Amino acid sequence: MKKIRWGIIGTGQVAHSFASDFRYVKSGELRAVASRDKASADKFSTEFDIELAFMDYFSLINSHEVDVIYIAVPHIYHYDLTKACILAGKAVLCEKPFTLNESQSKELYDLALANNVFVMEAMWTRFNPVIEQVLEWVEEGDIGTLSSIQANFNFLAPTDPEHRLMKLEMGGGALLDIGIYPVFLAQLFFGKPDFIQNQAVIGDTEVDVFEQILLGWESGQLASLEASLISYNPNRAVLSGSKGYIEIASEWFKAKSCRIVIGDDQERAVEFDFIVMAINSKLMK
Asked: Are 3 and 28 within 8 A, CB to CB?
């Protein structure tokens, strides 16, 4: 079987985690990496035994040596780089958030369709075996009619005003960096919401540092979500239905276990054994 040749744009911590985990991939090979700093690209390519190292992003995008490009740079660059990949006919796996706003996402979606190019946001939580198990329980009606979801993603972020999370011009803030996870979970089960309420705390650098989001659907479902860069939380998720509920253990977005409780006395738990990428406050830096 011919292996799919991957290129990586960016050499930061997220790119390192991706490249480290790539050793478990049997159908692909890391072929190229690009950074605006040639020394960084060379170091990265040596560390992960990657043959090609480019000193600019567009040399990789236009290279005939790669089939798919993984974009692992700050949010502000996602739109331009994904667009360039699509126009070059390269499949794209772009880190979340896919873009900074709806209009950018719609443009890229339409462009990908027009050019018959595969494009995907790197929401790896979607493929967690725990999420697959929860989907199965809900679809089989084990907790009855699903009516509500509660989910959080909180951690204490660096307070340096020059840090990317605290810079508005870099696409910083809680919603785009971590709020996207609980929003994803709600939309996975309920689809696009009909009603949105949001209360946010804006920090000294004008980015949202804490927010609570209430999503509603005309069919009667609700999702209560929270994202914070200034407070801790168990970061569990609970899905409630007419017969019982499902709890995804902390931290739910990378959990290895979940449990289902039916009525007052029926409970069972499921645990999976797999390698977890170290997504935590260190990775966010």
From this structure: yes
DSSP 193-256: -SEEEEEEEE-TTSSEEEEEEEEE-TTS-EEEEEEESB------EEEEESSEEEEEPSSGGG-S
Domains annotated on the chain, with CATH: 4-122 (3.40.50.720), 125-284 (3.30.360.10)
Instruction: Read off the amino acid at residue 232.
Output: Y
Instruction: Read off the pLDDT of residues 134-179 as tens digits, 9 standing for 90 and up.
Output: 999 999 999 999 999 999 999 999 999 999 999 999 999 999 999 9
Q: Residues in the chain, how many?
A: 285
Three-state SS for 150? strand
Cβ–Cβ under 8 Å, residues 30 and 22: yes
pLDDT digits (tens, 9 = 90+) for 26-60: 999 999 999 999 999 999 999 999 999 999 999 99
